[in-house]
């Protein structure tokens, strides 16, 4: 197998920060790469929220992950010792950006969550891929070993300090207490679906969607130009993202639930871009109710668009249903630009200015 250049970093949820006692990836021979420390890890799940070394060295494909970390809101340590899917990692690290010829991934990101959930991603500017999920076990760590420079400090006092200085953690615990044990596994749930943009006409009188009227040659009538799809980008609640514009998101694939979407299309010389933000609990509930226990069922994530009438609708559909199941507008916020000027925003839109730049 080849050697590769990759940096290593860590992350944790903003409301569930973590500290590492030891964290590294083992490679063949005696080679290993350490996760740089952060005090504490906290921020967006799946995004690098710690310093990381710009390592110019090349490394073998990692073969194992070894960590002991402190889940601050639980005040518990977890240990993770697991083999990594070497062939999968080797295949992914060999991927190149078809436009630049450069490696698609340049970073390995390690996520640490409560109840021992740990995640490994391969990360690049245009794509971040879920590699594997681990479940660590509780372990006791002597405070003198964890903070040798302050042997009188207790684990409880260390955790209390970081909770009190972390607004997201302290606010979450005050309102909710400790999160449900299955919450973080539900963040990482994978579902089989594809995005299906549909440019249709909204019939206001009958309140229903209609297909564009075409002649016998499947062409629109005189003076009518059909919209043309350009691309779709996604960021998901499982920490992954895809901005490749290679059409892969239009094919059935296993993926997490959408967190943010960007969709671009054009009508003649007018360019439209829609941005959507999904509320965590609402989209999770919509997916779980629709799929039930069969998360491998092939599903169409339909995006209906009538830009002229400023009507948009999201729905889920699987074979056998009479009609798609519409996703409540409360589950997402949306803004649309036409030639870079605002064209539409949902009634519940409250994103800060520039939130669409991601």
Task: Supply database-style keywords.
single chain; 358 residues; mainly beta; 10-stranded mixed beta sheet; 5-stranded antiparallel beta sheet; 6 helices; 14% helix
Please describe what this structure looks like.
The chain has 358 residues and is mainly beta. The protein is built from 6 helices and 22 strands. The chain has a 10-stranded mixed β-sheet. A 5-stranded antiparallel β-sheet has the order 3-2-4-5-9, with no helix packed on it. Strand 19 (311-317) and strand 20 (325-326) form a beta hairpin. The model has no long low-confidence stretch (mean pLDDT 93).
A few lines on this structure:
The chain is mainly beta and 358 residues long. The protein has helices spanning 86-93, 143-146, 155-164, 167-176, 183-187, 280-291, and strands at 7-11, 18-26, 32-34, 64-71, 76-83, 107-112, 117-123, 127-135, 137-139, 191-199, 201-203, 208-210, 228-236, 241-242, 253-255, 258-267, 270-278, 299-306, 311-317, 325-326, 332-338, 341-345.
């Amino acid at each position: 197998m080849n050697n590769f250049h990759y940096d290593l970093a860590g992350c944790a949820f903003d409301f569930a920060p973590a500290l590492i006692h030891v964290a590294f990836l083992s490679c063949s021979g005696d080679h290993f790469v350490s996760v740089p420390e952060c005090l504490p890890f906290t921020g967006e799940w799946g995004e690098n929220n710690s310093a990381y070394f710009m390592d110019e060295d090349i490394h073998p494909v990692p073969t194992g992950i070894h960590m002991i970390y402190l889940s601050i809101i639980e005040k518990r340590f977890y240990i993770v010792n697991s083999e990594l899917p070497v062939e999968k990692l080797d295949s992914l690290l060999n991927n190149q950006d078809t436009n630049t010829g450069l490696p698609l991934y340049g970073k390995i990101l390690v996520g640490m969550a409560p109840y021992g959930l740990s995640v490994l991603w391969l990360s690049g500017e245009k794509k971040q891929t879920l590699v594997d999920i681990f479940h660590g076990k509780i372990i006791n760590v002597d405070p003198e070993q964890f903070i040798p420079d302050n042997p009188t400090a207790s684990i409880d006092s260390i955790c209390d300090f970081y909770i009190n200085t972390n607004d997201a953690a302290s606010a979450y615990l005050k309102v909710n207490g400790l999160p449900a044990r299955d919450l973080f596994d539900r963040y990482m749930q994978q579902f089989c679906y594809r995005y299906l943009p549909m440019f249709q006409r909204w019939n206001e009188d009958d309140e229903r969607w209609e297909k564009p009227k075409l002649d016998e040659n499947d062409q629109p009538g005189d003076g009518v130009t059909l919209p043309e799809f350009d691309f779709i980008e996604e960021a998901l609640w499982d920490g992954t993202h895809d901005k490749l514009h290679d059409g892969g998101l239009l094919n059935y694939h296993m993926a997490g639930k959408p967190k943010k979407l960007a969709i671009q299309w054009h009508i003649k010389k007018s360019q439209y871009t829609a941005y959507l933000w999904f509320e965590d609990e609402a989209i999770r509930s919509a997916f779980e109710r629709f799929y039930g226990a069969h998360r491998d069922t092939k599903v169409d994530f339909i995006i209906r668009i009538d830009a002229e009438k400023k009507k948009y609708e999201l729905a889920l559909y699987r074979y056998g249903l009479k009609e798609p199941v519409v996703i409540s507008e409360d589950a997402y916020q949306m803004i649309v630009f036409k030639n870079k000027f605002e064209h539409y925003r949902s009634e519940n839109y409250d994103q800060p200015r520039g939130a669409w730049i991601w």
